[in-house]
């Protein structure tokens, strides 16, 4: 094949003919990247301005120097989650080995997880590892699942299987269902549920919001009333989604009580443990997930508290055979395998990345002791911030923290309630611009709150002290 218009390092020659050019390019890119990561604390947690990158397609190939310059701009203009003061979202620096695993997966390009034939090692590894993780949740001997590119897709997958199982609409769709299907979730559940309902033909109104208590946890009494009301109104309840780790406050719905209600009304029990699922690796905190073992399906995102490079999520099922029965669409152009299924036939995505490699490598590299320590350290720092907020006469908590998220608000007596949103918005900006601290500013109960997420392994007590120094200095200055 004529390659005269291509640069010498465009591809890795399988005979090694261009090894020197490829090695030089790879070394320069990796050296530059590592330098940027090793100096992440020298840059702001958030970029100050967007990089000037051209989106044109040039006529001829670019020089290695120009490519390196563009890569440097892209990295420096990106969200800097490696900064120890980046404490605002459920994003963190990934494990080193998951980054390298992603590189390997890209290089061998066995990323079509549609079939065993096209991704033999990774297909088998995904089946085995999802079964192992499902067992960690206690989902039973028949449990397993598939990986997905994010928790929204995992929730979509779980709800699709639930819908098909509860209404037998796999082939003919919803046209023959005489009552409107509805599901239930707390009023602070993730918005991916509404998206899933829309995509599945149920409509966003099919997600019935259930009241929460003062700690952002779904009220079982309110859930039972909502189910009864839906039945009286001629609708067809089929699923309850419990949240283990709400996005804004990190609280966990009362799983055992919800399980009781789903059992009584014969409803599908899905647990969105995208964030909180990592607690299964903590000896001290895993009891917070008691009740999850009764779930029919679970969403879990190791890309969050297990530090795997994005994306890496999964939909787990207590009876994995339901994927064949209630979701599978065969691909006749792909050879089947009795031992290992073609995963693309069982999941929302056909072609997708081999996310399992970086997940498996992270478990291998950190081990249970490493994951346990990371979670316990997050809780230790959370307790420190929680106590400082409680003791502070100008701050209040949104809820009692159950995970490594602290959501709070500045409410000094001298600031009128109607001006508190502006005050907290200004405080967020000052913390970023003057103290190199990024905390997020979610809307919760119709007002602005500051949210701290303690994930970064290099965030320490000095970061917490800087946070409260910044808060106190800002409030003192605003008061005067």
UniProtKB/TrEMBL annotation:
Residue ranges, compositional bias (Polar residues): 51-62
Transmembrane parts of this sequence: none
GO biological process, one term: carboxylic acid metabolic process
Modified residues (N6-(pyridoxal phosphate)lysine): 304
Pfam family name, one: Pyridoxal_deC
GO molecular function, one term: carboxy-lyase activity
Region (Disordered): 36-68
Requisite cofactors: pyridoxal 5'-phosphate
Sorted UniProt keywords: Decarboxylase, Lyase, Pyridoxal phosphate
Name of the protein: Diaminobutyrate decarboxylase
């Amino acid at each position: 094949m004529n390659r005269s218009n291509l640069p010498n390092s465009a591809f890795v020659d399988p005979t090694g003919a261009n090894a020197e050019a490829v090695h030089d390019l790879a070394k320069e890119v990796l050296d530059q990247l590592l330098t940027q990561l090793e100096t992440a604390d020298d840059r702001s947690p958030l970029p100050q301005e967007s990089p000037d990158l051209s989106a044109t397609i040039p006529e001829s190939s670019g020089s290695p120097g120009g490519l390196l310059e563009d890569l440097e701009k892209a990295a420096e203009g990106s969200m800097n989650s490696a900064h120890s003061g980046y404490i605002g979202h459920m994003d963190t620096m990934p494990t080193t080995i998951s980054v390298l695993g992603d590189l390997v997966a890209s290089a061998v390009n066995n990323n079509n997880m549609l079939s065993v034939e096209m991704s033999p090692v990774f297909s088998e590894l995904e089946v085995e590892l999802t079964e192992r993780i499902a067992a960690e949740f206690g989902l039973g001997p028949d449990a397993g699942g598939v990986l997905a590119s994010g928790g929204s897709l995992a929730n979509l997958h779980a709800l699709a299987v639930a819908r098909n199982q509860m209404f037998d609409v796999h082939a003919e769709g919803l046209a023959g269902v005489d009552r409107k299907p509805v599901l239930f979730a707390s009023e602070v559940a993730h918005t991916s549920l509404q998206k899933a309902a829309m995509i599945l033909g149920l409509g966003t109104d099919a997600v019935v919001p259930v009241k929460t208590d003062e700690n952002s946890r779904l009220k079982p009494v309110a859930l039972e009333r909502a189910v009864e009301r839906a039945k009286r109104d001629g609708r067809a309840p089929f699923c309850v989604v419990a949240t283990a780790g709400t996005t804004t406050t990190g609280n966990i719905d009362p799983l055992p009580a919800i399980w009781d209600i789903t059992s009584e009304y014969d409803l599908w029990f899905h647990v969105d443990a995208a964030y909180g699922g990592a607690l299964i690796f903590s000896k001290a905190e895993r009891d917070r997930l008691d009740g999850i073992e009764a779930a029919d399906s679970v969403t879990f995102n190791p890309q969050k508290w297990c530090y795997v490079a994005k994306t890496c999520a999964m939909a787990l099922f207590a009876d994995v055979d339901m994927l064949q029965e209630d979701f599978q669409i065969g691909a006749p152009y792909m050879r089947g395998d009795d031992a290992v299924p073609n995963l693309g036939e069982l999941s929302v995505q056909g072609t997708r990345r081999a996310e399992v490699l970086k997940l498996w490598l992270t478990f291998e590299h950190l081990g249970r002791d490493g994951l346990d320590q990371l979670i316990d350290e997050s809780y230790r720092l959370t307790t420190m911030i929680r106590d400082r907020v409680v003791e502070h006469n100008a701050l209040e908590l949104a809820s009692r923290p159950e995970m490594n998220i602290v959501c709070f608000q500045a409410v000094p007596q001298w600031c009128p309630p109607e001006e508190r949103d502006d005050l907290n918005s200004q405080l967020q900006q000052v913390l970023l611009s003057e103290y190199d601290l990024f905390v997020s500013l979610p809307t919760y109960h119709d007002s602005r709150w500051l949210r701290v997420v303690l994930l970064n392994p290099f965030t320490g007590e000095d970061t917490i002290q800087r946070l409260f120094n910044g808060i106190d200095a800002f409030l003192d200055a605003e008061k005067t």
